[in-house]
User: What shape does this take?
Amino acid sequence: MQKSAIYPRHAETLLTEALDDSPVTLIQGPRQCGKTTFAQEIGRPREYAYISFDDDNARRTVQSDPVGFVGELPARAILDEIQRVPELFTALKIAVDRDRTPGRFVLTGSTNIMLVPRLSDSLAGRMQTVRLYPFSQCEIVQGGPSNFIPTVFAGGFGTRRAERLAGGLAERIVAGGYPAALERLAGRRRATWYLDFIENLIQRDVRDLANIRSLETMPRLIAAVATHTASPFNLASLAAPFHVSRNTIHEYFTLLERLFLVERVSPWHSNRLSRIVKSPKMHMGDTGLACALIGVDAPGLAADRTLLGQLLETFVYQELRRQASCLEGPYSFFHYRDRDGVEVDLVIEQGTRSVAGIEVKAAATVHPADFRGLRKLKAAAGDRFVCGVVLYDGEISAGFGDSMYAVPVRALWEAL
Assistant: This one.
């Protein structure tokens, strides 16, 4: 699965459309997901200048005179790692209000700027945001965008046979999707990259974002999240191993969310559903990073069925999130669990019209009982329900009646 280049990306259409009608376009996503290369590849034929605010001199110039800095920029510029110079946002607003020519500025950010009201409000109505993730499986295999989600919302799958992934599934989960990691040999070299990435991120970006006295808590916290990925977010359990308050752990977790390293998935509910459990689930942002933090390789993951099930759920969730970001939407992601413990791993809403459910199994076979949660979801969603899918590591795509299907997990990125 080694990959020597990180281009093209399926978000290219979104970016080019934004450049055609928005004066400011923000590409945001975790560090090392390919934002800079993506921006430069799109900007090069359009003759964009490039400035990185990881450079100390560039930051000092902005901090001393942000308005003057923007005034001297060329007609088109890529401003990389914009979160490091929050002083620049007001100056950009002034410049854009004077000249709203589309495509003037491309910004990249490795923290979620939209969670900082002062910054996001400065460019409200002037900025289009393009979310970039680590590679999806479709991009890794250099195929076109997947039609899995459109097929789900079209109402079903045909019968077909596919080769079982078996050990190859664990290899994909452990590899993750960060471009620089995929350029390294699988195993120790790739895991080392992920661990160095976390260490550097905490020492640089966490210090920039917050005044944290005990930085050693952060790598331990993210390792704890990795161990419990695809589990309910329980602040008390998460905080228990640490000698700091629950409020502090919550603040640290929120900081990791801002860095796109972890995320919470809200529960799905309907007005017809009165027994919903209202706790979110937490997922790591990338399974390669999670496996490195846990210290598990592909053979070890394949042998640990419980851990494989957890990481496979996160793997599927992140793959669908990455695919949905480049589709006509909007698509929203949830999970479902009632007080009887009946659950569906992923619930996807297409706008307000349609609901689909995805259950994830690491097994090679599917049984009618595996659809129990999906059938409860269908009853709750009523006419909005379009399809229920059990994704599994098997060979046959087949229907189970009532818009329910068993589908091999490789159908996520292969042509259907």
